[in-house]
UniProtKB/TrEMBL annotation:
The keyword Protease applies. It comes from Modicisalibacter xianhensis. NCBIfam families: clan_AA_DTGA (TIGR02281). This is Aspartyl protease family protein. The chain crosses the membrane at residues 12-31. One of its GO terms (molecular function) is aspartic-type endopeptidase activity. Keywords: Hydrolase, Membrane, Protease, Transmembrane, Transmembrane helix.
Length: 175
């Protein structure tokens, strides 16, 4: 085998290596997108602060939860809609980033038991173009992560209907 054949063989091996690396990178990218879509199917939901797009329809994620983008005081957040929560519950680390002021100390009874936190008032909470002002909330130092539990202090504005994998939020009918 002469030196020209060796050079061509090295180029061929290099090109094959580049091909397989690109193919693996494409596979990893595709798989990550698939997982993200299954865990956060409402990621592309409109988060504008303008006119509401009612009704709001959300898809259940692979874990069985309704998760959607929104905002608190103009800052983007990820909401987990929780009809069992009385207040909008914000993790302590996220509350600091959002500049929320802790109010009175309070005990909260959660699925994980009793937790101590602080009451607070959220100037503005938005989901799907629906904006509410002066929403009661809580700051929960024991909550981890950046997901906010969107409780009934915001959700009471809607008639909530769950059918299969969809939750539909429609304007609440006056009593």
């Amino acid at each position: 085998m002469n030196s020209e054949d060796k050079a061509l063989r090295r180029i061929g091996l290099g090109m094959m290596l580049v091909f397989w690396l690109l193919l693996m990178a494409l596979g990893v990218w595709w798989f990550e997108r698939l997982i993200e879509t299954r865990q956060y199917p409402n990621a592309n939901m409109a988060t504008t602060t303008g006119e509401a797009n009612l009704p709001i329809t959300l898809q259940r994620n692979a874990s069985g939860h309704f998760v959607a983008p929104g905002h608190i005081n103009g800052e983007p957040v990820r909401f987990l809609l929780d009809t069992g929560a009385s207040l909008v519950a914000v993790p302590g680390n996220l509350a600091e980033r959002l500049g929320l002021e802790p109010g009175a100390s309070a005990d909260f009874f959660t699925a994980n038991g009793r937790a101590r936190g602080y009451l607070t008032m959220l100037d503005q909470v938005g989901l799907g173009g629906v904006n509410a002002h002066d929403v009661r909330g809580s700051i929960n130092p024991g909550m981890h992560g950046d997901t906010v539990l969107l409780g009934m202090s915001f959700l009471h504005r809607f008639d909530i209907q769950i059918r299969g994998t969809q939750m539909t939020l429609s304007p609440a009918q006056p009593l």
